[in-house]
Amino acid sequence: MQPRLSIIVAVSENGVIGNKNEIPWHIREDLRRFRIMTEGKTVIVGRTTFEQLRQAYESRGKLLPDRNHVIVTNQKDYVVSLPKCFVCHSVQEAINKAKSIEKDEIFVAGGASLFAQIIQKADRLYLTKVHMVVDGDAIFPDYSRFTRIISEETHEEKGIRFTYYTFGQ
Ligand SMILES: NC(=O)c1ccc[n+]([C@@H]2O[C@H](COP(=O)([O-])OP(=O)(O)OC[C@H]3O[C@@H](n4cnc5c(N)ncnc54)[C@H](OP(=O)(O)O)[C@@H]3O)[C@@H](O)[C@H]2O)c1
């Protein structure tokens, strides 16, 4: 059986996912959920998002462990000398690589360019709707093809309300 191809993202009310290479909110519970959901699985990321993740987690000593990272870049000489990290040079190559190492679920975790290229291929969408309107330069693409809500759960942290949606088709 093929692994499921899922997108995991947090999006503001006005469609923003990032600003100047940063996520414009800090919701610990959502980050924790990301860690738990992707643990033991395979994550595909664009090179920019990978470098963000690496910076965030290397300050604590290591990249998110216990998961594979497949990184997409156009740079032929881009090297990542870390365990369970694989560099690919197209989205299709990244999906093929992920399928070759993952049995269960592949998570596409950003950024905007990766989401735009994969939204039409994804089987599932885990979307945290952050109930804020924020400025941003990275926008989530149209996801109207996901019409079926599998689950929906609203939470609040430090005055920020957010809803975890799981969408299928
Ligand atoms: N809210 C969220 O859930 C969330 C999650 C992740 C990221 N973000 C935000 O998203 C923003 C980053 O998004 P982004 O679009 O700028 O960057 P990105 O998608 O993370 O990475 C873009 C890079 O990926 C590589 N790439 C993309 N498509 C490719 C293809 N078809 N073939 C080969 N390489 C390809 C290129 O790398 P090279 O330049 O090396 O060629 C490109 O510059 C940030 O603001 C970040 O905070 C938000």
From TrEMBL:
Keywords linked to the UniProt accession: NADP, One-carbon metabolism, Oxidoreductase
Keyword set includes Zinc-finger: no
Occurrences of domain DHFR (ranges): 4-169
Pathway this chain belongs to: Cofactor biosynthesis; tetrahydrofolate biosynthesis; 5,6,7,8-tetrahydrofolate from 7,8-dihydrofolate: step 1/1
Keyword Oxidoreductase set for record: yes
GO biological process: dihydrofolate metabolic process; folic acid metabolic process; one-carbon metabolic process; tetrahydrofolate biosynthetic process
UniProt GO molecular function: dihydrofolate reductase activity; NADP binding
Reactions mediated catalytically: (6S)-5,6,7,8-tetrahydrofolate + NADP(+) = 7,8-dihydrofolate + NADPH + H(+)
EC number: 1.5.1.3
SUPFAM superfamilies: Dihydrofolate reductase-like (SSF53597)
InterPro entries tied to this protein: DHFR (IPR012259), DHFR-like_dom_sf (IPR024072), DHFR_CS (IPR017925), DHFR_dom (IPR001796)
Pfam families: DHFR_1
Task performed by this protein: Key enzyme in folate metabolism. Catalyzes an essential reaction for de novo glycine and purine synthesis, and for DNA precursor synthesis.
Recorded family membership: Belongs to the dihydrofolate reductase family.
Name by which UniProt lists this protein: Dihydrofolate reductase
